[in-house]
Write a structure and sequence with these properties.
- By secondary structure, the protein is α/β, with parallel strands linked by helices.
- The chain folds into two domains: 207 residues, Alpha-Beta Complex (Lambda Exonuclease, Chain A), CATH 3.90.320; 215 residues, Nucleotidyltransferase, domain 5, CATH 3.30.420.
- The chain has 17 helices and 14 strands.
- Strands 1, 2, 3, 4, 5, 6 and 7 form a seven-stranded mixed sheet that branches. Strands 11-10-9-12-13 form a five-stranded mixed sheet, sandwiched between helices.
- The longest helix is centred in the C-terminal third of the chain and has 33 residues.
- The radius of gyration is 27 Å and the shape is globular.
- The termini are far apart.
- The chain binds iron/sulfur cluster (SF4).
- The site of iron/sulfur cluster has 13 residues, from helix 2 and helix 9.
Length: 457
């Protein structure tokens, strides 16, 4: 049976037989690969190479080829007798090929290390590791331990990256040994798929996103007949808005003018980019602030955006302290997020602790009245959601994210992480797009506030 099943495609088969088959025989049907997916893949590779520094002096079994192949397997066999540390050591057994990021030999015993760009061991890592253990041990390796190397969530970068502190490893040998029994049968089932003459019939469902979103979703969606899709289309909901005026007035009694409508954008780096930051810490790089000094006064706007190269936090804190003044409510949409970011800034920059704590004490949340269980502002057209992206089109239809180049926070965060790599012209355009996006986030809060105020008059 050629070519062998890789670890990735075995896991596709475990998720869905159709995904395995499409990936093997109809790769062209896959969703177009977006830039974000490619970057996540690249970052994973970079982290794997960084972790090799934990075991210096090893030899790499992988050659020029992008994926592990029979050549890597042959090179691994050569390296097993030459060195005690092998990177990307690949093995093949029962038509399944897989590699481990780092393989260490001590005497007759082997220790396998698989690197993951996460802050801990996830359930899906165990299925990965179980297959690797199955292949390696059936190839005759005496595996004394199997560990997942992942980020140490408590590591704080101070100066040069300390790779030994950045990573930590967790043994999963017991879990992977406990998962061995079904593997041979799983492989046999997947192998049978290779001989099918047509694409297996699998309906879409919850499994399409577990543990990862399937890259054939567009193909499968298009296979749902037009007639069925029409039936699935929901009836347009009623856009009428119902406001409990007394409850709204009592809710907003705590809001003190000037009103500061405020929103952060943040970015997370697995490998901390800056001093005093941890793996996957939320680093605020941008904010937008709309200010209403008093009811019906002219709306003011201020903003901050980092340069994408240096640590934005100190400049952001200093400007934010000035922009937010000393009195008035700071209105957020989901206070937990802004409060958490400010609390972290106060820990990492204790010289501003007093001012940041004062800002925290003035935070209020505009979101709760829109929660279905609060029911102060209700419309069937919210569809049970209280995300500002769903509330805005119902309450303020003339304001929309649709025209913007960036339409949601995940994209803003991803693109900011790329900013340093861009040419000056592209960087300037990205700055404009980021400023436009965050501006709309706070303008949306202002217009929602005004709309409700006009309804309860
Ligand atoms: S979208 Fe769902 S049903 Fe279709 S191949 Fe992927 S996992 Fe299978």
């Amino acid at each position: 049976m050629k070519p062998p099943i890789s670890k990735t495609t075995y896991l596709y088969g475990m998720q869905c037989h159709k995904r395995f088959y499409l990936n093997r025989f109809h790769k062209a049907f896959a969703n177009p690969e977006d830039e974000q997916t490619q970057l996540i893949f690249q970052r994973g590779t970079d982290v794997g190479e960084l972790a090799q520094q934990l075991f210096p002096g090893g030899l790499n079994a992988q050659g020029e080829e992008k994926y592990h192949s029979e050549k890597t397997v042959l090179r691994t066999q050569e390296l097993l007798v030459q060195t005690e540390i092998i990177y990307e050591a690949a093995f093949i057994y029962n038509d399944v090929i897989c590699a481990v990021d780092i393989l260490v030999r001590k005497g007759n015993n082997y220790y396998a290390f698989e690197v993951k760009s996460t802050n801990g061991v996830k359930e899906q890592h165990l299925d990965d590791a179980a297959l690797q253990y199955y292949v390696l041990s059936n190839c005759g390796l005496n595996l004394s331990n199997f560990s997942i190397v992942h980020f140490n969530r408590d590591y704080i970068r101070l100066g040069e990256l300390d790779v030994k502190q950045l990573f930590t490893s967790s043994s999963v040998i017991e879990e992977v040994e406990a998962r061995q029994k079904p593997i041979a049968k799983n492989i046999a089932d997947i192998k049978k798929l290779v001989w099918l003459k047509k694409i297996p019939d699998v309906e879409m469902g919850a499994h399409c996103n577990k543990p990862y979103a399937c890259n054939f979703s567009e193909y499968c969606l298009n296979l749902i007949p037009e007639s069925e899709r029409e039936l699935e289309e929901e009836v347009e909901p009623d856009t009428a808005i119902r406001v409990d005026a007394d409850a709204w007035k009592s809710f907003r009694e705590d809001f003190v003018f000037p009103l500061y409508f405020f929103d952060f954008e943040t970015v997370m780096y697995g490998v901390p980019e800056y001093n005093f930051s941890r793996p996957y810490q939320q680093i605020p790089f941008q904010y937008s602030l709309h200010i209403l000094l008093k009811p019906n006064s002219k709306l003011l706007h201020k903003s901050y955006l980092g340069d994408g190269i240096s640590d934005p936090r100190r400049d952001l804190i200093e400007q934010m302290i000035g922009d937010l003044g000393e009195r008035g409510s700071i209105i957020t949409w989901n206070i937990t997020f802004e409060r958490g970011v400010i609390a972290k800034l106060a820990i990492d920059f204790p010289e501003y602790e007093k001012e940041l704590n004062a800002i925290q004490a003035r935070l209020v949340d505009l979101m709760p009245p829109f929660r279905p269980n609060w029911g102060i502002v209700y419309s069937e057209a919210f569809r049970g959601s209280y995300s500002i992206k769903n509330i805005l089109p119902v309450l303020v239809p003339e304001l929309s994210y649709q025209e913007l180049n960036i339409q949601e926070g995940g994209t803003a965060s991803f693109l900011y992480g790329q900013m340093a790599l861009l040419e000056p012209k592209e960087r300037e355009q990205l700055r404009v797009d980021l400023l436009d996006y965050c501006h709309l986030d706070t303008l949306a809060m202002v217009r929602i506030w005004e709309r409700i105020e006009s309804l309860v008059k």
